[in-house]
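Listing S7. Sequence submitted for prediction.
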Amino acid sequence: MRLSITPLAEQDLEEIGDFIAIDNPIRAASFIGELREHCRRICSNPSAYRRRQDIANDVRCCVHGNYIIFFGATPAEVTILRIIHRARDVSGQFDPG
């Protein structure tokens, strides 16, 4: 299955890395690697993850540490939509279309 990451999710990764790098640049790089690996693992069984129709149609999510990975899936592709700290309000973070 193919994995794609939206520009908004790539921006999320960059911001997460920048924030962690303030205190620990080495950990920032390793944590971003862990998040990317988790995104790849989602491809092995995307339907196993929780649906979040309260946010948008066909959106699923999973937790990695204090972050939530939001994604959509088709039979051919998993698309990472956002990666957001779990303390953040997710309302308005997704395009309803």
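Caption to Listing S7: primary sequence and predicted structure tokens for the chain studied. Residues 5 and 80 are 5 Å apart (CA to CA). The chain has one domain: 2-85.
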